[in-house]
């Protein structure tokens, strides 16, 4: 292990960046609350623009973590149409839900196209209570569901329709699988598929279609396109987790993206349900190709593009480290070396509290136990069947 790797894996360094992220998040949340009180009563449009720009001051640090600290890459397999129009229109992204960090990888993808700050998502109600990040989700008018469709439908319709009048182009992320992949959940999905006479998937959970159907009802053809996006992490000796990114481990995030005009989506509920199942059947074959080849290259005509990193996250991280990170570290050093016993005990208590808060935040990104990871071992264990059927289904 080199000096740089040892430095990045130091718990003290990880704590340093984590504390900066937490304290800056508190500041951003307070500024968003001020915007809620002082701006929203007079201009909802200005409030929405303000909170989106404020949250980027927080989320940008996670992009810096991926891009610069870990050196991770984003590879996009897409045609010119997708690359030229992404970020310039409202869109729904349909993405598979495989890894602990797939949400962050999508954030990095969104940042490449300059639309991270206006990203929207349908998520579990309890996530809005996750410290800092969850609170920001609530301020940004994300849609929270309680897994009770009778009650959630109106919430979803109202939320989706509100995005049509949003002052910024929204990227609306839908994970139709509903939850991250584990072997236990996969087995339940197979049983459901057999019961309903559906085609079994080899690498994904069976998609849940209600959220998509409600979205189509709410948008009523007013959103231009759907982006069918399939995600995969290239083989690595490390598990693709937030903690390993914090340790400076590099990953290669791969996205295969297809733009589907909204006119190509069926108008009926039955047609939309069939549409989603067909999308996931194609995703499954595509992901099988990825598992076999460690790339989406060769599956169809879409070429690989390594999307360039933006400088905004670097500026954001430098700013927070300058005004918070280093001064906080210096003050902590003074307290621990020259402070009274009470001051020292208080400082240590704050450090311990922040440590457990960090564990809580990282823990929310970890898949439930039962799905094994780790390099080639991880790659082999996620297979649920042979993936040599890629030739059977090719996207245009």
From TrEMBL:
It comes from the Eukaryota. CDD domains: LPLAT_LCLAT1-like. The chain crosses the membrane at residues 12-39, 311-333, 339-358. Keywords: Acyltransferase, Membrane, Transferase, Transmembrane, Transmembrane helix. GO terms for cellular component: endomembrane system. The keyword Glycosyltransferase does not apply. SUPFAM superfamilies: Glycerol-3-phosphate (1)-acyltransferase (SSF69593). One of its GO terms (molecular function) is 1-acylglycerol-3-phosphate O-acyltransferase activity. Residues 373-396 are annotated as: Disordered. InterPro entries: Acyltransf_C (IPR032098), Plipid/glycerol_acylTrfase (IPR002123). Residues 91-213 form the Phospholipid/glycerol acyltransferase domain. Belongs to the 1-acyl-sn-glycerol-3-phosphate acyltransferase family. This is Phospholipid/glycerol acyltransferase domain-containing protein. The lineage of its organism: Eukaryota, Metazoa, Echinodermata, Eleutherozoa, Asterozoa.
